[in-house]
Specification:
The protein is mainly alpha-helical. It has helices spanning 15-28, 31-44, 70-81, 91-105, 114-125, 144-151, 171-177, 189-194, 198-228, 238-242, 247-259, 264-268, 279-282, 284-306, 330-358, 379-395, 417-447, 456-466, 478-489, 493-501, and strands spanning 85-88, 133-135, 159-161, 168-170, 314-315, 321-322. Helix content is 55%, strand content 3%. It starts with 14 loop residues before the first helix and ends in a 5-residue tail after the last helix.
Length: 506
């Protein structure tokens, strides 16, 4: 058997597979964990004060703790910091946070004990996922409160998610069912567990992983709306984007050109005399492209973060134990705020396209039904889209511009990155729903262009939607179709159908 790759990094595009591989490698060869632990043991015997190992925490860093109380110190640390509140982090995200914590500890600069590390591996292996309140971190000394809740089940306290992720149970009862006793935290264990940016980076990694699909969906929907509204392909000309070569804009324009291959609709109005389309059609490459570039930057930051050691103090090969600030969330805070703005803009321009689809332009019936008055048609989904876009304007306000000192001024500048992370997930979900409404309305509008066919990519996507969601000419319970449309936005089916017909979108 080949040696496990303990130096391999985790990438956003293969997030879960990379973590599977990384954790399997650490299970087979935990050498980095053992080496860093040996250095902590050496530090304990040198008689010096080492922050968090034999001292108090935060404002109590100058308080030396007797050797006989060091295990109690670590237990007290977890108990005292488990003060999170609010809605629970979704189970899937809590699972990701747990796995990112294992990955970070396995990098070998945290000094965690093997017993504690092995128990975390057992939790991951048996899908014992701690329940974590989403609020309570200021994103500075790591995500202290959320990660303390992550650590509580090691001590037989706190709660685990149920298998189906719909409820929680006391950790003690689930540990008993699995034949597991609570463990005793060794010196440095508690601090290694709760110091770190795994909540912030977990949210960021999840959202940016989803965003890699979402930006392609946004391009596809823009192409569908462009065809339905008989828009021009000229703004997507490759030469336009060579003279302003932003990578995101170039990729978006290329995607739309691909999707409109062999379009009969495009050919039918090529000489119609229309000079320019509204910005929500004409400037799709510039707007979608800017969001792509911003999300690429945020992805680079989060990838560096999830492959970094964000503990404190850090343990190095020569035995040095250095207290520093790698737990501070500022790099993430700025990037997550930027990502939130970028995602919100995708919904903002999509809502404007929805509005155009309903306006009765270019031969489309108003509100996308023939007999309106008796029927309201697709009037109200645009209201929903407008409400979600407006909410995103508040959610996209940068959390990182705020700082409230904590720990009696010892922690006098904090990032609020965890606040931005929670906001980012809400923004993502709002954007998905707005795009679902554009998909629903664009598909309805394209029906009225028959017998002319749109570009092959758009046609393939339209046919895929129509296999599940029918054309409508009377009012009905729209929420069911919105839910079906949302499933397409959250799935690979539409993009896969295009890739089968033409090529995969970039």
């Amino acid at each position: 058997m080949s040696a496990p790759d303990l130096n391999a990094s985790v990438r956003i595009d293969a997030l879960h597979a990379d973590l599977d591989r990384r954790i399997a490698a650490l299970r087979e060869d935990p050498t980095p964990v053992d080496r860093s632990r040996a250095r902590v043991e050496d530090a304990l015997s040198d008689g010096a004060a080492h922050y968090g190992i034999n001292t108090g925490f935060g404002a109590l860093a100058q308080e030396r703790v007797p050797e006989g109380d060091l295990e109690t110190l670590q237990r007290n640390l977890v108990f005292s910091h488990a003060v999170g509140v609010g809605d629970l982090v979704p189970k899937a995200l809590s699972r990701l946070i747990l796995r990112l914590k294992i990955h970070a500890l396995g990098l070998g600069h945290s000094g965690v004990s093997r017993e504690t590390f092995d128990r975390l591996l057992v939790f991951a292996e048996r899908d014992l996922i701690p329940a974590i309140p989403s609020r309570g971190s200021v994103g500075a000394s790591g995500d202290l409160a959320p990660l303390a809740h992550l650590a509580l089940p090691l001590l037989g306290e706190g709660r685990f998610w149920t298998e189906d992720g719909t409820d929680v149970r006391p950790a003690a009862s689930l540990l008993d069912e699995h034949g597991l006793e609570p463990i005793t935290l060794r010196p440095k264990d508690g601090l290694a567990l709760i110091n770190g940016t795994q909540q912030m980076s977990g949210y960021g990694a999840h959202v940016l992983h989803e965003a890699q699909r979402l930006v392609k969906i946004a391009d596809l929907l823009a192409a569908m709306s462009l065809e339905a509204l008989q828009g021009s392909l000229q703004p997507f000309d490759e030469r336009v984007h060579e003279v302003r070569p932003h990578p995101g804009a170039q990729q978006v324009a290329a995607n739309v050109r691909t999707l409109l291959t062999d379009s009969e609709i495009l050919a039918s109005h090529r000489n119609c005399g229309k000079v320019q389309d509204p910005y929500s059609l004409r400037c799709v490459p510039q707007v979608h492209g800017a969001s792509r570039d911003a999300l690429r930057h945020a992805t680079d930051v989060v990838e560096r973060e999830i492959n970094s050691v964000t503990d404190n103090p850090l343990v190095f090969e020569n035995g040095d134990v250095i207290s520093a600030g790698n737990f501070h969330g500022q790099p993430l805070a700025l990037a997550l705020d930027y990502a939130g703005i970028a995602l919100a803009e995708l919904a903002g321009i999509a809502e404007r396209r929805i509005y155009l689809l309903l306006a009765g332009h270019d031969g489309l019936p108003e509100l996308l039904m023939e007999d309106t008055g008796l029927n309201s048609g697709y009037m109200m989904p645009q209201y929903t889209a407008a409400a979600l876009v407006s909410e995103n304007k508040s959610l996209a306000h940068p959390a990182s511009v705020d700082s409230i000192p904590t720990s009696r001024g010892q922690e006098d500048h904090v990032s609020m990155g965890s606040v931005g992370a929670v906001q980012l997930l809400d923004i993502l979900e709002n954007v998905e729903r707005v795009l679902a409404i554009e998909l629903l309305t664009a598909a309805q509008a394209l029906d009225y262009r028959r017998p002319l066919r749109p570009g092959r990519g758009v046609e393939q996507a339209h046919e895929t939607v129509r296999e599940t969601i029918p054309h409508r000419e009377e009012d009905y319970l729209l929420e069911d179709d919105i839910d079906e449309s949302l499933a397409f936005v959250r799935d690979e089916a539409l993009l896969a159908s295009v890739a089968e017909e033409l090529e995969a979108l970039g």
